[in-house]
Amino acid sequence: MKKFKRITIMILAVLPMIYTAVAVFFILPDTVSAHFGIDGTPDRYGSKYEAFLFPAIILGITLLYFLYRKFQEKSSKEDNDRTARNLDILDTVILIVMVLFNALCVFLLTVMKHPGMMKNKENMIFVIISCVIGVLFILLGNILPKTKPNSFIGIRLSWCMDSDEHWYIANRNCGIAMVLSGICTVIAGLIVRNGTYVIYMILSLIVFLTVATIYSYVIIKKK
């Protein structure tokens, strides 16, 4: 199962480059909408070859992740079981992110072909994006408490890394904060139906994570 996750991540990292090449060479016009304003109006046009930028970024992120993964496996001389568990959880996170990246890449290519989609009356595009981001936050919030102290994922503050119990308290509370922020992001997208949902998303993240961190600190110091 663990090897299957890594293979799937590799496949999902390469796929965007393949269908982007198909779109660029056979579907997209020479000039495409490269950026949109908050109201969905195109405010910059560029070459269709700019479509390769996002797939290249996806490949770069994947390469960096596997280099980091290899480094962690070689440098963890003690507690290999803990490292393996953290890396398995991290594989799950990256797998989810890759699925979302693929969906986003398809969406970007579709918008380049049909820029009028961004101007529909109901602004369903913003609703979809906010829901996808919100669900990602909710998934990450559920994953955080399952990790063990590590150098990559989780709330890595000195006062919560000195024991598994303290780590669990901090990451459980911050995981709840991520879930609440995800719910707020979905609701904001459904209500405002434009790019301003990003403001509510950032505000909710800051507020919930700050409260969760302070609350965790107080509990741990009392212990």
In short:
With 223 residues, the protein is mainly alpha-helical. It contains 6 helices and 2 strands; from the N terminus they run H-E-E-H-H-H-H-H.
Word description of this protein:
The protein has six helices and two strands. With 223 residues, it is mostly helical. It has two domains: 1-114, no CATH class; 120-223, no CATH class. The chain has a two-stranded antiparallel ribbon with strand order 1-2. Strand 1 and strand 2 form a beta hairpin. Helix 2 runs antiparallel to helix 3 and helix 5 (164-192) packs antiparallel against helix 6. The longest helix has 34 residues, at 80-113. The protein starts with a helix and ends with a helix. 26% of the residues are buried. The model has no long low-confidence stretch (mean pLDDT 86).
Keywords:
single chain, 223 residues, mainly alpha, 2 domains, two-stranded antiparallel sheet, 6 helices, 70% helix
**What's the number of extended β-strand segments?**
2
Nearest-integer average pLDDT: 86
Taking pLDDT < 50 over at least 5 consecutive residues as the criterion, the unreliable ranges are none
Task: Tell me the helix content.
Answer: over 70%
Largest sheet: 2 strands, antiparallel
The CA-CA distance between the termini, in Å, is 38 Å
Query: What letter string, H or E per element, gives the SSE order?
Result: HEEHHHHH
Question: If strands are numbered along the chain, what order do they take across the biggest sheet?
Answer: 1-2
Radius of gyration: 20 Å
Q: DSSP strand (E) fraction? A: 5-15%
Number of helical segments?
6
Number of domains: 2
Q: Structural class from helices and strands? A: mainly alpha
Shape: flat
